Amino acid sequence: MKKSNTKFQYKRYSEHAILIQGPSKIDETLLENLLFYKKSIEKFYGKLIIEVILSYNSLLIYYASTIENVYDEVLTLKSLFSDEFENQASKKRLWKVPVCYSNSLAPELSSFAVNKSMEIDEVISLHTTPLYTVYFIGFLPGFLYLGGLDEKLFAPRKSTPSQKLEHGSVAIGGNQTGIYPCDSPGGWHVIGKTPVRFFDINADNCCFASPGDKIQFISITEEQYNDIGLLVNTSNSIPESKIL
Amino acid sequence: MISSVKIISSGLYTTIQDRGRFGYSKYGVPKSGAMDFQSFSLANAVLNNDENCAVIEWTMIPPVLEFEGDTIIAVTGAVCIPFLNDVEHRMNCQLQVRKGDVLKLKSVINGVYGFVGIRYGFQSELCLGSRSQYNMVTASSVLRKNDTIFYNNCIDFSASNSSIHVPVFWNECSIIHAFKGPEFDLLSESQKGDLLHMNLTISKDRNRMGIPLDESLENDFESMLTSPVLPGTVQLTPSGKLIILMRDCQTTGGYPRILQLTKDAINHIAQKRMGEQIKFKLKKTLE
User: What range does the domain containing B41 cover?
Assistant: First the structure.
């Protein structure tokens, strides 16, 4: 991995937490650095002592007990970062997420296309082409923050949020696309629906995708949607994937 | 022996809570946990429990509970008068409960979140290391009428009559101590002045996720990247309204984090009612 010379700022966040913040950008190299840094910190402290919250450009280190001496902790944290992190053989996966874009399941898609002066097929094609990067999980249990939406599909959020977006809704808001893992109010435009569950409390790994993984949306018919839906409900199945 | 408590009437937003979840932000799972840790901890301390034993938390309107077997309970938090089978008792001390006893709480208008602790803790489902109820994580998100919750009987009634006087500070003192948040220094001098000198009012839309304040601040921030947040983080929303994130808050948020409440201040503000006023006071931080 090439040197990134990433500069981090360290700030006390609360009695229990220290924030490590990198440059304000959405960037895969920064993500790699943060993922390695997170791993290095967790290895040093042990996961029971700290919890590390990841976002685009920060790590929030939350300690189980009050931080006695912030200076010492910051020095320790600084010593755990190296610009020369070797690109470890981390198991990154590409998840193929089936999405039905048909009118009955995503009635807003047609008005979205009209607003964009596009054909519906063009929207679907632009949405299913990229390999989206999973940056982190937040907002709701199992909600993936994805990078890589085609800028032709950028669309301002609705001025009045919908009262209820159903779980599995695949939506676009601003320069982001995402999947609602549970019913929730939301201001994003729903353009499709997936039968896949993104948060399952009974699975060993509550959310199958991890930061650094890739997601690709695969267009499916309504019939396929129903078939996969049955499968998901009976066997907690997760989507197909391959190691990158 | 195992008994259960039956919810005769649910009160308002009554839930099971402990200290919450640690280590699951990687899935976007909120911490949850008792809104007022101090009153929660007191309930367990009075009962000689482990500090993370689960309690029942109620909001403004208390539940009515019927106990199927002998045990010891304690009532803490929002001020109320406990009645066992219509006999008046005190808060913040051990109360002996016999098979079939019914607990009613007469709420006094002081505080928001009340707690009923039980010897050995309530034994509801343990999900991701915690019994705190939260939608998507536990099977149900609140306690409802006729729900039953298990507990281990306690027949050792050698309990003392000691109790503790708890000063109810949250009604009088309106100073809320906070550290500078990561985006505090981006505020202009006049914004900082408003933030630290204005009397701010608790909004009616408060819940376990957050407490909005009625007043607005001038806000000319550019949008920022979604970043980590914690309970106690004060966000400045695009409309200029302030929201104090509470125990069920998201793990990440996209609004500037201008203050971070101290841990005592989080407990304090949890007990503030709608319409009550507060004032933020900065606590010196070590950078």
Answer: 2-152
B227 touches A: beta carbon within 8 Å = yes
Give the separation between CA B106 and CA B80, rounded to whole angstroms: 5
User: Residue A2's pLDDT is what?
Assistant: 45
**Residue B248: closest C-alpha in chain A:** A140
pLDDT of B224 > 80? The answer is yes
B237 near A CB under 8 A: no
**Any residues with CB less than 8 A from the CB of A117 and at least 6 apart, and which?**
none
Inform me whether the C-beta atom of residue B207 falls under 8 Å from chain A C-beta atoms.
no
Contact by Cβ (8 Å): A59, A74: no
Q: Single out the residue in B119, B152, B185 at which a domain terminates.
A: B152
Which of the 8 DSSP states describes residue B218? -
Residues B128, B10 share a domain = yes
Model pLDDT for residues B147-187, shown as the tens digit of each residue:
999 999 987 766 566 777 777 666 666 899 999 999 999 99
Q: In this predicted structure, what is the pLDDT of residue A158?
A: 83
Tell me the count of A-B CB pairs closer than 8 A. 111
pLDDT of res. A89: 53
Examine the domain organization and report whether B132 and B230 are in the same domain. no
How many whole angstroms from its chain centre is CA B30?
14
Is B31 within a domain?
Answer: yes
Helices and strands counted in chain B (H then E): 3, 20
**Minimum-distance CB partner of A58 among B25, B227, B287:** B227
| In-domain check, residue B161 | no
Residue B170 lies in a domain: no
Same domain as B116, residue B252? no
How far apart CA B9 and CA B203 sit, in angstroms, is 27
Residue from A9, A37, A140, A197 to probe the interface with B (highest B Cβ count within 10 Å): A140
Q: Is A77 in contact with A21 (CB distance < 8 Å)?
A: no
The answer to whether B29 contacts A141, with C-beta atoms less than 8 Å apart, is yes
From the CB of residue B35, how many other CB atoms can be counted at a distance below 10 Å? 27
In chain B, the number of structural domains is: 2
Query: Which residues, given as ranges, of chain A have pLDDT below 50?
Result: 1-3
Q: Please return the burial class of A69, using the count of CB atoms within 10 Å of its CB with bins 0-12, 13-18 and 19+.
A: exposed
**pLDDT of B26 above 60:** yes
* One domain, residues B83 and B126: yes
Comparing CB atoms, the residue among A16, A57, A182 nearest residue B225 is A57
Write down the pTM of the prediction: 0.93
Interface probe, candidates B21, B24, B29, chain A, greatest A C-beta count within 10 A = B29
Residues 6 or more apart in contact with residue B132 via CB below 8 angstroms = B15, B16, B17, B18, B20, B21, B32, B33, B34, B54, B138
Domain CATH number, residue B268: 2.40.100.10
* Cα pseudo-dihedral B38, B75, B107, B37, rounded to 10: 20
Query: A182 in contact with B at a CB cutoff of 8 Å?
Result: yes
